[in-house]
Amino acid sequence: MSTPEFTTKHTFYGHRGNVFCLSLSADGNTLVTGSKDAKIRLFDLAAGKLTQTLEGSKSPIMGLAISPDGKLAVSGNTTNSVMFWDLAAGKQGKQHPPGTGHHGTVNAIAFAPDGSFVLSVADDRKVIKWDPVKAKQRVVMNKHEAPVLAVSIAPDGKRAVSAGDDGSARIWDIEPGEQLHVIETGAQSVVTAVWSPDGKLIATGGNDGRIRLWNAETGEKAGDFPAGLESLHALAWNPETTLLAGGGTANSLMIWDAIEPTTDAPLDKSTSAVPGRYPFKGHTNYVQSVAWSRDGKRIVTGSRDETVKVWE
User: Fold this and answer.
1) Average per-residue pLDDT for the chain
2) Backbone dihedral region for residue 237 (phi beyond 0: left; psi -120 to 50: alpha; all else: beta)
3) Is the pLDDT score of 247 beyond 80?
4) 7: Cβ contacts below 8 Å, ≥ 6 apart
5) Which of 4, 3, 13, 1 is nearest to 310 (CA)?
6) pLDDT value at 14 more than 90
7) pLDDT at 38
8) DSSP 8-state code for residue 3
9) Phi, psi of 37 (to 5 degrees)
10) Are the C-beta atoms of residues 203 and 193 closer than 8 Å to each other?
11) 311 forms bridges with which residues in the sheet?
């Protein structure tokens, strides 16, 4: 495979704290970011500029997702709230304070591919399905044995994967809320889990610095390789399900070849000397969040250095 090439197109400043989460619209032109500063920022990437700053959360925003059409956003924060945002109107809609949804920090949000529902996961070990228009809770999935940190929905919108501090990744049939498979990943904590665009694989990463691939139908292991950093915070697939982008405890955007991954070599955080691993420097602190546009032309990263970078 040829070496992927990305350079920084934009660097956005303005958040006053760790950029924990971000999300791209389906066309790749609208970006939302969430931060420790409790603010949501909205960017027009075609124009390369900030268009809105949304306030209303009372605590750091840990999870965030934008609807495919770019009209709605849903966020989760450290004071247990799932909040719904009308991006066109520039205001928040109905929110769910403690006692009406989650009972713990809301760590991640995922929008269905068709925008018809949202999943949220939290420290209370729950996966909750919401109607994003009515802001209504529809299904609760509650099988994890520790805080849930990540969630991703299959391309067909029928299944999802969640993962967390119990070291497991769990595959769900969303409509009835039934657990299909429990994957014991081998990591103590799974921080990120992403379903591949072709629907066949799930990639997980966590505090042991390894990327693991799983058969999405059976839950069986399909691959396992070192990431080249001590801990992973975020992963995202390219449209062809051949590459993974992500980051963690290295101040770089990292890209890995998922088809012919790196061998089990010693950690190498500074160079691309190990085949199948490509670091792109630019951040000055850990990378916390990442998204890859559906056309494959754009990657966005958020960092503990309080910046958001757009790579093209």
Assistant:
1) 93
2) beta
3) yes
4) 311, 312
5) 13
6) yes
7) 97
8) P
9) -80, 0
10) yes
11) 8, 299
Query: Domains plus CATH for the chain?
Result: 8-311 (2.130.10.10)
**What single-letter DSSP state applies at residue 208?**
T
How many other C-beta atoms can be found within 10 angstroms of the C-beta atom of residue 52?
15
What is the rounded end-to-end Cα distance, in angstroms, of the chain? 19
Asked if residue 284 lies in contact with residue 305, where contact means CB atoms within 8 angstroms, the answer is: yes
Count CB-CB contacts under 10 A for residue 199.
15
DSSP letter at 85 equals E
Cβ 97 vs Cβ 81: under 8 Å: yes
CA dihedral 182, 141, 76, 81 (to 10 degrees): -150
Token pair recorded at residue 26: 């389906």
- Kindly list the distances between the CA atom of residue 221 and the CA atoms of 202, 215, 263, 302, in Å, as whole numbers in the listed order: 9, 6, 17, 29
104 contacts 117 by C-beta, under 8 angstroms: no
Measure the CA–CA gap between 63 and 239, rounded to whole angstroms.
23
In whole angstroms, give the CA distance from residue 134 to residue 114.
16
pLDDT tens by residue, 60-110: 999 999 999 999 999 999 999 999 999 988 888 777 766 678 999 999 999
Cα–Cα distance, 58 to 74 (Å, whole number): 15
Mean pLDDT lowest among 7-21, 59-73, 97-111, 113-127: 97-111
Cα–chain-centroid distance for residue 257? 19
> What whole-number distance in Å separates Cα of residue 193 and Cα of residue 153?
10
Query: Using CA of residue 164, residue 113, residue 298, residue 30, what is the dihedral sign?
Result: negative
Place of tokens 């990442």: 290
- Contact status, residue 196 vs residue 241, Cβ threshold 8 Å: yes
- Cβ distance 290 to 246 under 8 Å? yes
CB atoms within 10 A of CB 207: 18
Alpha-carbon Rg for the chain in angstroms:
18
Integer angstrom CA distances of residue 270 from 117, 233, 261, 307, 310: 41, 18, 18, 21, 21
The C-alpha atoms of residue 178 and residue 174 are separated, in whole angstroms, by 7
